[in-house]
Amino acid sequence: MGLIDRFRKFERPHPPERISSGAIGWVQNEVHKPRPHGWEHVESRIVLLPEFAEGLRGIEEFSHLIVVFYMDLAVNAPEKPLSVTVEGLETGIFATRSQLRPNHLGVAAVRLLGLDQKTLRVLGLDAIDGTPVLDLKPYLPRYDAHPDATNPGE
Predict the structure, then answer these.
(1) What's the whole-model pTM score?
(2) Which domains are assigned to the chain?
């Protein structure tokens, strides 16, 4: 985009209501069913499809990554609640990390332990074995860390 193009009026097209995406790889670990806690010590491998391996160039320079994944087992859950009870308090689904979200997307900031060709080793990914990975991004503290963030009850 040239300097002149930046100043032209932009007409944004109407955004789509439905979107689709495909897996770039899958999670491999020893966790075979969903669980609510204890992910901080889980080491996982993210194995990318061969056609995405080149996209990993330079990623080993980062200490942490953001992983976007699809919680595929939640698709068949009998309910899709807009609220859930967490520690005795009824909470809106968007105020939780529950897998029962409308689009079943998971996002996690994880420590990068290593890279071997098309396989990343990470720590703290709250996704079970076989979970499809949709995207990877480097964790950038200047954008992603918020030291003044607060949580209820803290």
Answers:
(1) 0.87
(2) 21-140 (2.40.30.70)
